[in-house]
Amino acid sequence: MRKIMNFKMALLLGLAVAGLSMISASNKAEARPNFKDIWAQTYPDSKMLIAKKCGVCHPGKTKKEKNDYAEAVFKGLGKRKQTDKDVIIKALKDAEAMPSSVEGKTYGDFIKADQQPPTKAAE
């Protein structure tokens, strides 16, 4: 009889843990804002985001790969996991004014022309 009670308690506890984990998993929140959405709000007329999506900053197959434009934006963020939308917009605008690896052109020139900002390694 005691074994049956222990089994029932273990089963009940297991079901409770499984239920709580399912509920908490559905309310998952990203700690960082969606940079792609903020970029789209900052440059609403750009068609590049539609074509490149995250490739505006991450030209490779993984998010770890960043182009020079992404590095310029990262410098303006101040910290790795920036969550303040105003700071992110300021970092985008500051990077826009920075000179690119193409002489005489800023990153903003490429964004206005709906072209992928170049990377020194790509040249």
Q: How would you explain this protein's 3D organization?
A:
The protein is rod-shaped. The chain is 54% helix and 0% strand. The protein contains 6 helices and no strands. Helix 2 (35-42) crosses helix 5 and helix 4 (68-77) packs across helix 5 (85-97). The protein folds into 2 domains: 1-30; 35-122, no CATH class. The protein is mainly α. The termini are far apart.
SSE inventory with pairings:
Blueprint (H helix, E strand, L loop, with lengths): L1 H25 L8 H8 L5 H5 L15 H10 L7 H13 L9 H6 L11
Keywords:
single chain; about 120 residues; mainly alpha; 2 domains; 6 helices
Quickly count the domains.
2
Instruction: Tell me the Rg in angstroms.
Output: 23 Å
- Round the mean pLDDT to the nearest integer and report it: 79
Strand count, sense and closure of the main sheet? none
Estimate percent helicity. Answer: 40-55%
Number of helices: 6
Looking at the structure, what is the overall shape? rod-shaped
How many DSSP E strands? 0
The proportion of residues in beta strands is: under 5%
- Low-confidence residue ranges: none
Distance between the termini: 76 Å
**Helix-strand makeup class:** mainly alpha
Order of helices and strands: HHHHHH
